[in-house]
């Protein structure tokens, strides 16, 4: 382990052992732990970072102490936007969205006013320091609050509601992008290229959540259920086939969004609508088939 890695690990250990409080150079500062997933390795990496709050936003800056290259954690969150945040004793998942253009400049000004050292880091490099907003997903709005989870059927519905909500959010953002593009496009002018990082990050986060859910079902839930309900073999075969269809569309979306410069908007929108059609039909069929079987199984499992 390198000296830098050893130092980081000592800060992480102290942070977790003391409810988010650390000494040394970070004493008294606003510090969080950000866990990203390696863009190539798939291995989780945790990094201590200073943060700034402004107008309800939680922000970190890819300063890398003013070095000429972005830090590794920034490259990781561009590939896999779902991250884990630890502040004090609180730990939760978030979606990492770098700010762009005028919004980035405005937020960076607030960052520098709160922590002037970032201004010095920016002066020491020609690259634009990324300002990353760590968005905590809002709980699903429902009459009386979120539905209680008492059975595996409840848990499956909770996951499906979240996936539907994530997908609809990306569709709404995409529609807003096209409306804004049309409003600013003059006669005879070509449409503006790209989609922007906000749509990109939210779509990749949806794809990340969807892949995790379907892989978990294929590896764990489906085999266990099929063993107890062999008469539903054809239904499970259909569900697995639908998983493969959805996975192909997911790969198309991820491929279109691989470059930070942005996907072709028309192709992206077409694939997104194909995803909405296929996934909605799949979730409806899965609920129709599996919820009656899962309704009597307690969650969490009884020891």
Automatic annotation (TrEMBL):
Superkingdom, natural source: Bacteria
Catalytic activity: oxidized coenzyme F420-(gamma-L-Glu)(n) + a quinol + H(+) = reduced coenzyme F420-(gamma-L-Glu)(n) + a quinone
Cross-referenced CDD domains: Hr-like
Hemerythrin-like domain ranges (all copies): 152-294
Pfam families for the chain: F420H2_quin_red, Hemerythrin
Record family assignment: Belongs to the F420H(2)-dependent quinone reductase family.
Record-linked PANTHER family: F420H(2)-DEPENDENT QUINONE REDUCTASE RV1261C (PTHR39428)
Protein name: Cation-binding protein
